[in-house]
Protein backbone atom coordinates (compact mmCIF):
# COMPACT_ATOMS: atom_id res chain seq x y z
CA UNK A 1 0.00 0.00 0.00
CA UNK A 2 3.01 2.26 0.47
CA UNK A 3 3.18 2.54 -3.35
CA UNK A 4 -0.04 4.60 -3.35
CA UNK A 5 0.81 6.95 -0.46
CA UNK A 6 2.06 10.06 -2.27
CA UNK A 7 -0.20 9.96 -5.31
CA UNK A 8 -3.53 8.82 -3.84
CA UNK A 9 -3.74 8.06 -0.13
CA UNK A 10 -2.11 11.15 1.38
CA UNK A 11 -4.07 13.61 -0.81
CA UNK A 12 -7.35 11.94 0.23
CA UNK A 13 -6.39 11.97 3.91
CA UNK A 14 -5.46 15.66 3.71
CA UNK A 15 -8.84 16.34 2.15
CA UNK A 16 -10.94 14.32 4.61
CA UNK A 17 -8.91 14.87 7.82
CA UNK A 18 -9.86 11.61 9.62
CA UNK A 19 -9.19 11.68 13.36
CA UNK A 20 -9.32 7.96 14.18
CA UNK A 21 -7.68 5.63 11.67
CA UNK A 22 -7.64 1.82 11.84
CA UNK A 23 -4.88 -0.09 10.06
CA UNK A 24 -5.24 -3.85 9.57
CA UNK A 25 -1.90 -5.45 8.71
CA UNK A 26 1.28 -3.54 9.53
CA UNK A 27 4.14 -5.84 8.37
CA UNK A 28 7.37 -3.78 8.55
CA UNK A 29 5.45 -0.64 9.51
CA UNK A 30 6.14 1.51 6.45
CA UNK A 31 2.51 2.57 6.03
CA UNK A 32 2.13 2.67 9.81
CA UNK A 33 4.80 5.38 10.00
CA UNK A 34 3.09 7.39 7.28
CA UNK A 35 -0.26 7.14 9.03
CA UNK A 36 1.22 8.14 12.38
CA UNK A 37 2.96 11.12 10.82
CA UNK A 38 -0.34 12.18 9.27
CA UNK A 39 -2.29 11.61 12.50
CA UNK A 40 0.15 13.92 14.27
CA UNK A 41 -1.05 16.79 12.05
CA UNK A 42 -4.72 16.34 12.98
CA UNK A 43 -6.18 17.58 16.26
CA UNK A 44 -7.01 14.46 18.26
CA UNK A 45 -5.60 12.26 15.51
CA UNK A 46 -4.69 8.67 16.39
CA UNK A 47 -3.94 5.33 14.78
CA UNK A 48 -5.23 1.94 15.94
CA UNK A 49 -3.00 -0.70 14.33
CA UNK A 50 -3.96 -4.39 14.25
CA UNK A 51 -1.45 -7.16 13.58
CA UNK A 52 -0.68 -10.46 15.34
CA UNK A 53 3.08 -10.11 14.76
CA UNK A 54 4.23 -6.60 13.75
CA UNK A 55 7.72 -6.61 12.21
CA UNK A 56 8.97 -3.35 13.74
CA UNK A 57 9.85 -1.85 17.12
CA UNK A 58 6.43 -1.11 18.60
CA UNK A 59 7.81 0.41 21.80
CA UNK A 60 9.90 2.88 19.84
CA UNK A 61 6.82 4.16 18.02
CA UNK A 62 4.87 4.38 21.28
CA UNK A 63 7.68 6.50 22.73
CA UNK A 64 7.70 8.68 19.63
CA UNK A 65 3.95 9.16 19.17
CA UNK A 66 2.54 8.48 22.64
CA UNK A 67 -1.22 8.01 22.90
CA UNK A 68 -1.66 8.74 19.20
CA UNK A 69 -0.53 5.13 18.60
CA UNK A 70 -2.60 2.18 19.82
CA UNK A 71 -1.04 -1.17 18.81
CA UNK A 72 -3.37 -4.14 19.18
CA UNK A 73 -1.79 -7.55 18.64
CA UNK A 74 -4.11 -10.23 17.34
CA UNK A 75 -6.35 -11.22 14.44
CA UNK A 76 -8.52 -8.48 12.98
CA UNK A 77 -11.80 -10.37 13.36
CA UNK A 78 -11.11 -10.79 17.08
CA UNK A 79 -10.20 -7.15 17.66
CA UNK A 80 -12.59 -5.22 15.39
CA UNK A 81 -15.71 -5.94 17.53
CA UNK A 82 -14.07 -3.87 20.28
CA UNK A 83 -13.58 -0.82 18.02
CA UNK A 84 -16.85 1.09 17.92
CA UNK A 85 -16.03 3.87 15.48
CA UNK A 86 -13.36 5.25 13.16
CA UNK A 87 -13.12 7.76 10.32
CA UNK A 88 -10.82 5.84 7.96
CA UNK A 89 -9.58 2.27 7.73
CA UNK A 90 -6.83 0.44 5.85
CA UNK A 91 -7.28 -3.27 5.07
CA UNK A 92 -4.04 -5.01 4.13
CA UNK A 93 -3.92 -8.09 6.32
CA UNK A 94 -5.12 -11.62 5.53
CA UNK A 95 -5.91 -11.61 1.80
CA UNK A 96 -8.87 -13.98 1.55
CA UNK A 97 -12.61 -13.73 0.99
CA UNK A 98 -13.72 -14.72 4.49
CA UNK A 99 -11.47 -12.31 6.36
CA UNK A 100 -11.96 -9.28 4.11
CA UNK A 101 -15.74 -9.75 3.80
CA UNK A 102 -16.19 -9.98 7.56
CA UNK A 103 -13.81 -7.08 8.23
CA UNK A 104 -16.05 -4.97 6.01
CA UNK A 105 -19.15 -6.24 7.85
CA UNK A 106 -17.65 -5.01 11.13
CA UNK A 107 -17.13 -1.54 9.66
CA UNK A 108 -20.69 -1.61 8.32
CA UNK A 109 -22.00 -2.05 11.88
CA UNK A 110 -20.36 1.17 13.05
CA UNK A 111 -22.54 4.25 13.48
CA UNK A 112 -20.91 5.84 10.43
CA UNK A 113 -19.22 3.89 7.65
CA UNK A 114 -15.60 5.06 7.30
CA UNK A 115 -13.58 5.65 4.16
CA UNK A 116 -11.87 2.30 3.55
CA UNK A 117 -8.64 1.70 1.63
CA UNK A 118 -7.96 -1.91 0.55
CA UNK A 119 -4.84 -3.41 -0.98
CA UNK A 120 -4.56 -6.42 -3.34
CA UNK A 121 -7.66 -6.09 -5.50
CA UNK A 122 -5.63 -7.16 -8.56
CA UNK A 123 -3.47 -10.23 -9.25
CA UNK A 124 -2.48 -12.35 -7.39
CA UNK A 125 -5.13 -12.11 -4.65
CA UNK A 126 -8.02 -10.29 -6.29
CA UNK A 127 -9.54 -13.67 -7.28
CA UNK A 128 -7.51 -16.11 -5.17
CA UNK A 129 -7.52 -16.68 -1.41
CA UNK A 130 -4.33 -16.56 0.62
CA UNK A 131 -4.09 -17.73 4.23
CA UNK A 132 -1.43 -16.82 6.78
CA UNK A 133 -3.22 -19.02 9.31
CA UNK A 134 -5.52 -21.49 7.47
CA UNK A 135 -6.85 -22.86 10.77
CA UNK A 136 -8.30 -19.41 11.58
CA UNK A 137 -10.73 -19.66 8.63
CA UNK A 138 -13.88 -21.76 9.15
CA UNK A 139 -13.65 -24.96 7.13
CA UNK A 140 -16.71 -24.15 5.00
CA UNK A 141 -15.03 -20.94 3.75
CA UNK A 142 -11.49 -22.30 3.37
CA UNK A 143 -10.38 -23.26 -0.13
CA UNK A 144 -8.00 -26.19 -0.68
CA UNK A 145 -4.56 -24.63 -0.41
CA UNK A 146 -0.85 -25.39 -0.40
CA UNK A 147 2.42 -23.59 0.26
CA UNK A 148 3.21 -23.30 -3.43
CA UNK A 149 3.75 -20.34 -5.73
CA UNK A 150 1.60 -18.44 -8.24
CA UNK A 151 2.24 -17.33 -11.82
CA UNK A 152 0.22 -14.77 -13.82
CA UNK A 153 -2.31 -16.40 -16.09
CA UNK A 154 -1.92 -19.81 -14.45
CA UNK A 155 -4.75 -20.97 -12.21
CA UNK A 156 -2.90 -23.96 -10.75
CA UNK A 157 -0.17 -23.53 -8.16
CA UNK A 158 3.47 -24.10 -9.17
CA UNK A 159 6.58 -25.17 -7.31
CA UNK A 160 8.49 -21.97 -8.08
CA UNK A 161 6.40 -18.84 -8.16
CA UNK A 162 5.18 -15.76 -6.35
CA UNK A 163 4.55 -15.99 -2.58
CA UNK A 164 5.32 -19.68 -2.17
CA UNK A 165 5.95 -19.16 1.58
CA UNK A 166 2.23 -18.77 2.39
CA UNK A 167 -0.85 -20.92 1.90
CA UNK A 168 -2.40 -20.10 -1.49
CA UNK A 169 -5.72 -21.43 -2.77
CA UNK A 170 -5.22 -24.16 -5.33
CA UNK A 171 -7.22 -22.30 -8.01
CA UNK A 172 -8.31 -18.80 -9.04
CA UNK A 173 -11.87 -17.48 -9.43
CA UNK A 174 -15.07 -19.13 -8.29
CA UNK A 175 -17.41 -18.12 -5.49
CA UNK A 176 -16.02 -16.55 -2.31
CA UNK A 177 -12.45 -16.57 -3.56
CA UNK A 178 -10.19 -13.53 -3.31
CA UNK A 179 -10.12 -9.95 -2.04
CA UNK A 180 -11.91 -8.28 -4.96
CA UNK A 181 -14.65 -10.92 -4.82
CA UNK A 182 -15.12 -10.17 -1.11
CA UNK A 183 -15.41 -6.44 -1.81
CA UNK A 184 -17.89 -6.95 -4.66
CA UNK A 185 -20.01 -9.36 -2.60
CA UNK A 186 -20.04 -7.00 0.38
CA UNK A 187 -21.09 -3.96 -1.65
CA UNK A 188 -23.78 -5.95 -3.50
CA UNK A 189 -25.30 -7.17 -0.22
CA UNK A 190 -24.93 -3.99 1.84
CA UNK A 191 -27.91 -1.72 2.43
CA UNK A 192 -25.57 1.30 2.38
CA UNK A 193 -24.99 3.32 -0.82
CA UNK A 194 -21.29 2.63 -1.38
CA UNK A 195 -19.00 3.45 -4.27
CA UNK A 196 -15.78 1.56 -5.05
CA UNK A 197 -12.86 3.39 -6.70
CA UNK A 198 -9.88 1.43 -8.01
CA UNK A 199 -6.26 2.06 -8.94
CA UNK A 200 -4.97 -0.93 -10.89
CA UNK A 201 -1.18 -0.80 -10.44
CA UNK A 202 1.06 -2.53 -7.85
CA UNK A 203 -1.40 -5.31 -6.87
CA UNK A 204 -4.29 -2.83 -6.85
CA UNK A 205 -5.85 -0.34 -4.46
CA UNK A 206 -9.55 -0.03 -3.71
CA UNK A 207 -11.27 2.84 -1.92
CA UNK A 208 -14.83 2.46 -0.63
CA UNK A 209 -16.71 5.69 0.08
CA UNK A 210 -20.35 6.08 1.16
CA UNK A 211 -22.30 7.73 -1.65
CA UNK A 212 -24.37 10.46 -0.02
CA UNK A 213 -25.47 13.36 -2.23
CA UNK A 214 -24.58 16.68 -0.68
CA UNK A 215 -22.07 15.12 1.74
CA UNK A 216 -19.82 12.57 0.06
CA UNK A 217 -21.11 13.09 -3.47
CA UNK A 218 -18.38 15.63 -4.22
CA UNK A 219 -15.77 13.53 -2.38
CA UNK A 220 -16.41 10.64 -4.74
CA UNK A 221 -15.88 12.92 -7.72
CA UNK A 222 -12.65 14.31 -6.25
CA UNK A 223 -11.32 10.79 -5.52
CA UNK A 224 -11.95 9.82 -9.14
CA UNK A 225 -9.86 12.80 -10.26
CA UNK A 226 -7.06 12.04 -7.78
CA UNK A 227 -6.79 8.46 -9.05
CA UNK A 228 -6.92 9.48 -12.72
CA UNK A 229 -4.14 12.06 -12.22
CA UNK A 230 -1.90 9.91 -9.98
CA UNK A 231 0.16 8.44 -12.87
CA UNK A 232 0.28 5.07 -11.07
From TrEMBL:
Pfam families: Methyltransf_24 (PF13578). One of its GO terms (molecular function) is methyltransferase activity. One of its GO terms (biological process) is methylation. This is Class I SAM-dependent methyltransferase. Keywords: Methyltransferase, Transferase. It comes from Paenibacillus alvei.
Amino acid sequence: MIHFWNGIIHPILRLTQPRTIVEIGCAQGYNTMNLLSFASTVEGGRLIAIDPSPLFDVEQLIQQFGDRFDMRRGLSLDILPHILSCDAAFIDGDHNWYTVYHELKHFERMERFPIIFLHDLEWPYGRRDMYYFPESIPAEYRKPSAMKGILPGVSELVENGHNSSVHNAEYEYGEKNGVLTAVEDFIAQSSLPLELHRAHSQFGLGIIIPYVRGINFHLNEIVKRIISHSNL
